[in-house]
Amino acid sequence: MGRSRDFGGQAFRSQTSAEFRASFADYRKLEALDLSFALNVPWQELGRTVFTVNLLRGTGAFPEQAVSAVLQRL
């Protein structure tokens, strides 16, 4: 899959299809798999993002409770 957009080391949650499409160069491939919402969480070491954990789902944006739960576990 293609690269996702950099969010300056901050977690990102797409809440609309427009945000999702603006965030993924390969959004057409993802939408073909019925994925249209994302939660991207950067993993940083020494102040640099070394990778991101990208959670994708098909229906509805990730609720705030899910975002908080993921962030607490990382």
Summarize the structure in short.
By secondary structure, the chain is of the alpha+beta class. The chain is 31% helix and 28% strand. The model has no long low-confidence stretch (mean pLDDT 85).
What does this molecule look like?
- The chain has 74 residues and is of the alpha+beta class.
- It is 31% helix and 28% strand.
- The chain has helices at 17-23, 27-32, 64-73, and strands at residues 12-13, 37-45, 48-57.
- The protein has a 3-stranded antiparallel β-sheet, with helices on one face.
- A hairpin with a 2-residue loop joins strand 2 and strand 3.
- It is globular and about 35 Å long.
- The relative contact order is 0.22.
Counting DSSP E segments of at least 2 residues, the number of strands comes to 3
The strand order across the widest sheet is 1-2-3
Oligomer: single chain
Q: Radius of gyration, Cα only, in angstroms?
A: 12 Å
Q: H/E series, N to C?
A: EHHEEH
Q: Residue ranges: pLDDT <50 for 5 or more in a row?
A: none
Structural class: alpha+beta
**What distance separates the N and C termini?**
23 Å
| Fraction of residues in H or I helices | 25-40%
What's the pLDDT, averaged over the residues?
85
Shape summary: globular
Task: Specify the number of helices.
Answer: 3
Q: Percent of residues in beta strands?
A: 25-35%
Largest sheet: 3 strands, antiparallel
How would the blueprint of this fold be written?
Elements: E1 12-13, H1 17-23, H2 27-32, E2 37-45, E3 48-57, H3 64-73
Antiparallel strand pairs: 1-2, 2-3
Task: Give short descriptive properties of this protein.
3 helices; 74 residues; three-stranded antiparallel β-sheet
